[in-house]
Amino acid sequence: MQIGFQLEMEARKIKMPQPKLWTWPFIFLILANLFTFMSFQMLLPNLPPYIESIGGSSLQVGLITTMFAFAAIIIRPFIGHLLMTRPRKILVLIGAISLLVMTALYPITQVVVILLIIRFIHGIAWGWSTTVNGTAAVDLVPRRRVGEGMGYFGLSVTVGMIMAPSLGIYLYQNYSFDLLVGIAAALGIIAILLFSVTRFVTPEQVYKNQEDPPRFSFTGSLIEKRSWYPALVTILNTFGYGSVVTYIVIFGNEQGLTGTFLFYFFNAVFATITRPVTGRYFDKNGPWKLIMICSFISFGAMWVLALASSNVHLIIAGALFGIGFGSMMPALQAWVISKTTTERSGIANGMYYSSIDLGIGSSAFILGFIYQFVETATLFKLSSFLFLFVLLLTILDYRKQTEPWVAPE
């Protein structure tokens, strides 16, 4: 009788319908986050050559990214703590409006020092916005479908990170920096409108915490100890991306390549095509094998890019990078979130985005020094080996697993 009852319960679990993922709030949030990332990412690859064009040094080119990343990192512990006590919508809107204001300020000066200050404050706004937006997505996604749900949400990040730079490069190279900033600001306004009509979900524990606020700890709000390992992998993973986003336009100019935007375009296309498959694979099998394969593909993409001598090579490199890096990022975010509790998902999510900024920022800073002595292609070759470290760390963690992967409830 007991065995029969257990078998019946197992059968019910198997037949249990999947919780609904595609709700209007989730769709609006994805679209709003897409426009947020597009607004930001349009500027990212164009700021280094713009700084050079107004007389900035190679060190200042690196600082424009490093200072931004540092600002985003230091603000996130405070945002993580706020997310434990404040409703989502007001925090999301504050972040989106702040980003719009800082974006609009770039054309007002050509003094590099003032631009660095603007960039630092922009980093604070970015750290705020990415943390609260990602946490709002976690609140809307059923825990049993976190890999798939965050994979789709991650598309707004990946497509923004990949497609917007190609548009930004085209506008900067063919029109002007002022027009580029104007269009980026317009996208920011669209994002604010979409956030305004989105119905957010705030966990019940947040309202309980308002009555008895948890004690603030900078390190406790910066680091989710249970998620430190995938966060470390994320840092290494984004180091390679940092070299691309900082130097690909400069590389294209050096090599006489007119189709730099093609790298980003095909990156976005292939990241979008593979995302539904990789998201479901994560929920079923966990992150390890997926990240192993994708890190090796990303390593190959970096070498194709470094050796590129035609637009065809840029297309191949972009496609490979979209499959590899484009699939790894949402998998890493889902891995970070899956290792923590719902209450601390905001802190874990903030740590994930801080890992991205730390990887990109340290890449720009370190490579900014090396750039004084080597060709840009060499920077891509050097940073490619970080993807092999990602592969190694993932293999080591996979070997420690003693039980089959189970998607979080």
UniProtKB/TrEMBL annotation:
Q: Which CDD domains match?
A: MFS_YfcJ_like (cd17489)
| Superkingdom, taxonomy of origin | Bacteria
Q: Which PROSITE patterns match?
A: MFS
The way it spans or sits in the membrane comes to: Multi-pass membrane protein
Chief location category:
membrane
Q: What is an example of a GO molecular function annotated in this UniProt entry?
A: transmembrane transporter activity
Q: Which GO terms describe its cellular component?
A: plasma membrane
Keyword annotations of the record: Membrane, Transmembrane, Transmembrane helix, Transport
Q: Where are the transmembrane segments?
A: 21-40, 60-79, 91-118, 153-173, 179-201, 228-250, 256-278, 290-308, 314-338, 350-371, 377-396
Domain Major facilitator superfamily (MFS) profile stretches? 25-401
Compartments annotated for it: namely: Cell membrane
What name does UniProt use for this protein?
Answer: MFS transporter
Organism per entry: Halobacillus faecis
> Which gene carries the instructions for this protein?
norA_2
